[in-house]
């Protein structure tokens, strides 16, 4: 049998398989249970978070011959045909490649015919934001009052591009980025099933680089398997997912905090020589300072450890012991200045170097409260009557 990538092999089959979208599954199951299912849905949210999968699950749940607690059985004829993509009553339209009016006209012609086998004729229009204005307009009437045997499920990553006239005719469901903890737990079950040996630390790294999209996480895992087979070690993960750069940025920040100008400039030079864009380095530094400020001010128990690379949290704790929150604020201001300057200047590299040198000389500013306390103390020494 030909190899199927994980993201296809593991397409969620029931509402309960959808990770991190419990709010949506629950509402849809309730609607099915009480037989109050809308005629048009809009599934919107970031890529790879389960929109298309959920559209298929909903379609199956509505047409299944023997649903189990309102979930599709995945075994009856309708479920099997929908899973294989051969159900004639389920029409999946990829709006990215069928943007034109002719497809919507055809759809308008065909909606009136009853379904052949299923209870509902279901139109899944994926990437719906790609339709032309003319197509959207042609869709409006049908979307507002389709025949009772028709359901529409529109899916998009970009609801801003959908006319409000269309949005207001649909029940909208917002898919969210999948929380790191949920994603790590899911990946653990995947690697167990696939008999892959990989550390929790590496699964955290994959999760971090996927920024909330499950498809991206599974695609990274696939790539790592094809490089390393069933034994995936941490260093491979770090190098393949390009996270070495993060470590170098941390080293740069450490040198700034240690006021080691020589080291700072040579680390910066290294990053530039590796072909990293200067603007990107500045943005990443800004994120490092933000993370350091978080570590400085938020109790460790409340920090989301998934948001940090392995060892990073320990490093940040060590670094924040050496600086005040005020100094971190000053770093941030300087980086903001650098960001503005590099946009206006033709000498971006020099601007950053000057900014980094400035960061190395930041002194802790004395706040107004400290000045008042110091004055009071000196007054007290002079005249013990004043309080
Ligand atoms: N919430 C989720 N739970 C479990 N797996 C998921 C989830 N979301 C995505 N996946 C995985 O990613 C694959 C692709 O998901 P799906 O096609 O449903 O995403 P999508 O939101 O439609 O993405 P796109 O916006 O790119 O069309 C699925 O087959 C599954 O392996
Ligand atoms: Mg999709
Ligand atoms: Zn079924």
Task: Indicate the overall shape.
Answer: elongated
Strand content: 5-15%
Please state how the strands of the largest beta sheet are arranged side by side.
2-3-4-1-5
Number of helical regions: 18
Number of spatially distinct domains: 3
Order of helices and strands: HHEHHEHEHEHEHHHHHHHHHHH
At the fourth CATH level, what is the homologous superfamily of the largest domain? P-loop containing nucleotide triphosphate hydrolases
C-alpha termini separation: 86 Å
Tell me the number of strands: 5
CATH architectural designation of the largest domain: 3-Layer(aba) Sandwich
Low-confidence stretches: none
Concise synopsis of the structure shown:
The protein contains 18 helices and 5 strands. By secondary structure, it is α/β, with parallel strands linked by helices.
Describe the protein's architecture and organization:
This protein is 55% helix and 7% strand. It has 387 residues and is α/β, with parallel strands linked by helices. It has 3 domains: 6-174, 3-Layer(aba) Sandwich (Rossmann fold), CATH 3.40.50; 180-240, Helicase, Ruva Protein, domain 3, CATH 1.10.8; 244-360, Zinc Finger, Delta Prime, domain 3. A 5-stranded parallel β-sheet has the order 2-3-4-1-5, covered by helices on one side. Helix 6 links the parallel strand 3 (121-126) and strand 4. The longest helix is centred in the last third of the chain and has 20 residues, at 278-297. The structure holds adenosine-5'-triphosphate, magnesium ion and zinc ion. Magnesium ion (MG) is lined by residues 51-52, 126, 155.
């Amino acid at each position: 049998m030909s190899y199927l990538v994980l993201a296809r092999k593991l397409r969620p089959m029931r509402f309960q398989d959808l990770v991190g979208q419990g709010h949506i599954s629950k509402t849809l199951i309730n609607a099915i249970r009480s037989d109050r299912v809308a005629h048009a849905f809009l599934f919107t949210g970031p890529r790879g978070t389960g929109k298309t999968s959920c559209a298929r699950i909903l379609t199956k749940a509505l047409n299944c011959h023997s649903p189990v607690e309102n979930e599709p059985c995945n075994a009856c004829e309708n479920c099997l045909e929908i899973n294989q993509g051969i159900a004639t009553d389920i029409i999946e339209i990829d709006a990215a490649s069928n943007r034109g009016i002719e497809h919507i006209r055809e759809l308008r012609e065909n909606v009136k015919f009853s379904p052949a086998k299923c209870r509902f004729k279901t139109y899944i229009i994926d990437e719906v934001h790609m339709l032309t204005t003319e197509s959207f307009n042609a869709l409006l009437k049908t979307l507002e009052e389709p025949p009772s045997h028709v359901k529409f499920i529109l899916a998009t990553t970009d609801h801003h591009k959908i006319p409000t006239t269309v949005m207001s005719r649909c029940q909208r469901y917002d898919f969210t980025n999948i929380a790191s903890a949920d994603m790590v737990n899911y990946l653990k079950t995947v690697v167990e099933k696939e008999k892959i040996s990989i550390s929790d630390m590496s699964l955290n790294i994959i999760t971090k680089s996927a920024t909330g999209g499950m498809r991206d996480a599974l695609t990274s895992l696939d790539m790592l398997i094809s490089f390393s087979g069933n034994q995936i070690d941490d260093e491979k993960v770090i190098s393949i997912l390009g996270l070495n750069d993060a470590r170098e940025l941390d080293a740069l920040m450490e040198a700034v905090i240690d006021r080691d100008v020589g080291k700072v400039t040579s680390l910066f030079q290294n990053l530039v020589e590796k072909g990293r864009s200067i603007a990107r380095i500045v943005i990443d530094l800004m994120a490092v300072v933000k993370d350091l400020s978080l570590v400085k001010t938020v109790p460790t128990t409340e920090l989301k450890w998934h948001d940090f690379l392995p060892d990073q949290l320990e490093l940040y704790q060590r670094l924040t012991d050496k600086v005040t929150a005020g100094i971190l604020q000053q770093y941030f201001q300087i980086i903001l200045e650098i960001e503005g300057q590099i946009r206006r200047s033709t000498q971006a590299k020099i601007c950053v170097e000057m900014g980094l040198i400035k960061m190395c000389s930041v002194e802790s500013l004395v706040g107004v409260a400290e000045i008042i306390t110091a004055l009071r103390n000196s007054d007290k020494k002079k005249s013990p009557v004043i309080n």
